[in-house]
User: Which sequence fits this backbone?
């Protein structure tokens, strides 16, 4: 079953975050992940949620998504994301 990783990211150091982006993208390939949305314009439709940057990734399963986020290929990028941004991440099953 398809799965989506959704990240709500508040970048605190835009210059450093560029290093994260360079490492994050190639880490997806071994896990079959792909970007569906990556930092595009966000418009609030309901409630008080006002994220500054949303990233949506698609994987073939929840297991593959979890394998990616905990992978050696993503570990350095993940550490940079934690250093240069405040973020929240979830995984959700698709249809």
Assistant:
């Amino acid at each position: 079953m398809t799965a989506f990783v959704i990240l709500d990211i508040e970048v605190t150091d835009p210059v450093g975050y560029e290093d994260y982006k360079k490492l994050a993208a190639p880490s997806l390939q071994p896990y079959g992940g792909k970007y569906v949305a990556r930092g595009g314009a966000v418009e609030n439709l309901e409630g008080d949620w006002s994220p500054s940057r949303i990233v949506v990734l698609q994987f073939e399963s929840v297991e593959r998504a979890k394998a990616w986020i905990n992978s050696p290929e993503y570990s350095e990028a993940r550490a940079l994301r934690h250093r240069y941004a405040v973020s929240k991440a979830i995984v959700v099953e698709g249809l």
Q: What stands out?
A: The two ends are 7 Å apart (CA to CA).
